[in-house]
């Protein structure tokens, strides 16, 4: 079968091969036929080594498709079911799951170290234990979440990561209050979803911050009240908040520099929400006096900061009701053979979200 493979960490292009086989099917597993998958910035971060991932590997974790086969012990799924891929399934038994913090379950991360593909030359890993830049994949049963028949595969794929992460940051983690002021730094697919989440919550002002003009224009269509490049954020802070700072600032880039900017633009007593996934050697610093004196809440948000199954259901309900726009987030559609063009469009900021159709 065909799949897009990264041979070594640090390479910036994928090779589309037709000699890849999905392996590992058995008890507790399901085999999926991928129909659509989104290109998320985390895939690029894994390729560059910012996010840890063994290689060679197949990127992709934001996918949807159909069940081909179901292993022993998997309940609630049958061949032919339409599903989205959950890259961080909850085991239901660990301490985090028992506390109700299923987004912190580590079971899914353990899958990343087990190859679920092979080629004639040896084993191939799937990113985050999945790997959706391929026609077929074998994953844990908990990674396959049934979706209603009225949800297109490309919409379900977005809900599988970017939409859930961004909406959840605003709704679950920060719990944006109606009438508040919000700034979102970084307006790719996750940032735009954060903008939509803040709008759903009733924020009065939502300032989108991004260096790419097309992304700023998109943010306005998705609910931002204004959009500015980074060098105009200070002016927006002065105009909108009288210099005090925003009630909520979301960092959706994954860099310490933008996290520091976000901190400085959060009002005293306000909330800084870290959504971007960054590198282990990139350190965010605050001094002990400002930490105490400013009383700003610093809240990281992992996968939307809540139960992902409930978050999927909420995203579908909001989409059906017309409260969020998911179709327009897909600005580019490509075939698997065009994956490197899609990577280039993401790196330049041209694409908001690319759907790879398989």
How are the secondary structure elements laid out?
Blueprint: E1 3-5, E2 15-17, E3 21-22, E4 29-38, H1 41-48, E5 57-58, E6 62-70, E7 82-85, H2 95-98, H3 107-111, E8 117-119, E9 122-126, E10 136-140, E11 144-146, H4 153-159, H5 162-173, E12 181-185, H6 189-200, E13 205-209, H7 213-221, E14 226-228, H8 233-241, E15 246-251, H9 256-264, E16 266-274, H10 288-294, E17 297-300, H11 308-320, E18 332-335, H12 339-348, E19 354-357
Parallel strand pairs: 5-9, 12-13, 12-15, 13-14, 15-16, 16-17, 18-19
Antiparallel strand pairs: 1-2, 3-8, 4-6, 4-10, 4-19, 6-7, 7-11, 8-9
Helix pairs in contact: 5-6, 5-11
Tell me, briefly, the overall form. globular
Distance between the termini: 11 Å
Oligomer: single chain
Helix content: 25-40%
Largest sheet: 7 strands, mixed
The overall pLDDT, averaged over residues, is 95
Structural class: alpha/beta
- The total count of strands amounts to 19
Percentage of residues in DSSP E strands: 15-25%
Instruction: Count helical runs.
Output: 12
Evaluate the radius of gyration: 20 Å
Poorly predicted ranges (pLDDT <50, ≥5 residues)? none
What would your notes on this structure say?
The structure is a single chain. With 358 residues, the protein is α/β, with parallel strands linked by helices. The protein is built from 12 helices and 19 strands. The strands form 4 sheets. Strands 4, 6, 7, 10, 11, 18 and 19 form a 7-stranded mixed β-sheet that branches. Helix 9 links the parallel strand 15 and strand 16. Helix 5 (162-173) runs parallel beside helix 6 (189-200) and helix 5 (162-173) crosses helix 11. The longest helix has 13 residues, at 308-320. The chain starts with a strand and ends with a strand. The mean pLDDT is 95.
């Amino acid at each position: 079968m065909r799949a897009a493979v990264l041979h070594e960490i640090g390479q910036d292009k994928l090779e589309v091969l037709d000699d890849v086989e999905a392996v590992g099917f058995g008890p507790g597993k399901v085999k999926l036929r991928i129909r659509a998958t989104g290109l998320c910035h985390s895939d690029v971060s894994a390729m560059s080594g910012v996010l840890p991932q063994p290689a060679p590997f197949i990127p992709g974790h934001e996918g949807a498709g159909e069940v081909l086969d179901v292993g022993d012990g998997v309940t609630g799924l049958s061949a032919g079911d339409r599903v989205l891929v959950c890259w961080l399934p909850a085991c239901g038994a660990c301490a985090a799951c028992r506390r109700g913090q299923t987004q912190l379950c580590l079971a899914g991360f353990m899958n990343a170290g087990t190859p679920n593909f092979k080629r004639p030359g040896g084993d191939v890993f799937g990113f985050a234990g999945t790997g959706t830049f391929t026609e077929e994949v074998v994953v844990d049963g908990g990674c396959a979440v049934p979706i209603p028949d009225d949800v297109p595969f490309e919409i379900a794929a977005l809900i599988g990561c970017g939409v859930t992460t961004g909406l959840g940051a605003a709704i679950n983690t920060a719990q944006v209050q109606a009438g508040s002021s919000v700034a979102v730094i970084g307006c790719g697919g996750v940032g735009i979803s954060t903008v939509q989440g803040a709008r759903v919550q009733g924020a009065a002002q939502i300032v989108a911050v991004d260096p790419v003009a097309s992304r700023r224009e998109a943010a306005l269509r998705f609910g931002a009240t204004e959009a500015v490049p980074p060098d105009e954020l200070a002016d927006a802070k002065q105009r909108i908040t009288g210099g005090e700072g925003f009630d909520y600032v979301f960092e959706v880039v994954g860099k310490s520099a933008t996290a520091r900017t976000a901190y400085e633009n959060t009002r005293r007593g306000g909330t800084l929400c870290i959504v971007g996934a960054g590198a282990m050697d990139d350190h965010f610093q605050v001094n002990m006096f400002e930490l105490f004196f400013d009383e700003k809440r610093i809240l990281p948000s992992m996968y939307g900061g809540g139960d992902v199954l409930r978050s999927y259901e909420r995203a579908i309900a909001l989409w059906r009701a017309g409260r969020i726009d998911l179709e327009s987030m897909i600005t580019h559609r490509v075939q698997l053979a065009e994956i490197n063009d899609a990577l280039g469009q993401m790196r330049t900021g041209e694409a908001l979200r690319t759907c790879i159709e398989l």
